[in-house]
Amino acid sequence: MASGEIVFRDESYQAIGACFEVYKERGNGFLEAVYQECLAMELTERNIPFEDKPRLRLEYKGRPLKQEYEPDFLCFGEIILEVNAVKQLSDEHRAQVMDYLKATGKQLGLLVKFGHHPKIEHERFVNQPLSRVSRVS
Question: How does pLDDT run along the chain (137 residues), one tens digit per residue?
């Protein structure tokens, strides 16, 4: 991937566009579950491939863990889409998306906040592979 290139640009624009449409129809003030259900309908209507509440397996040293992650949506098999109906996103919301990315190896996470007026707010998180820095003596 070239430097400065947007990860899953077209796919993420499609997913965020579906979120904008849900907000346009529903506005703010609903529970998160309402937005999730509406968004599932909108993603289906737009022919965006997604899984609703997918169970993502975790591993440790190649062995499966009992713990699983369950983001709100996995779009296009690659983009984790997490929905919130809060007035303010916190570092815990952001950390949750980053944890999903690190644990699964997925490259892109979208965090969408429906609890804001007059429009949704969203943040993009890109999972960058760790680079090892070696010290020169």
Answer: 555 688 899 999 999 999 999 999 999 889 999 999 999 999 999 999 999 999 888 888 989 899 888 999 999 999 999 999 988 888 999 999 999 998 888 999 999 999 878 889 999 999 976 544 433 44
pTM: 0.87
Closest CA to 56 of 82, 90, 32: 82
Domains in the chain, CATH or no CATH each? 9-126 (3.40.960)
Q: Is the four-CA dihedral 13, 7, 82, 28 of positive or negative sign?
A: negative
Taking CA atoms, 47 is separated from 11, 15, 76, in Å, by: 11, 10, 10
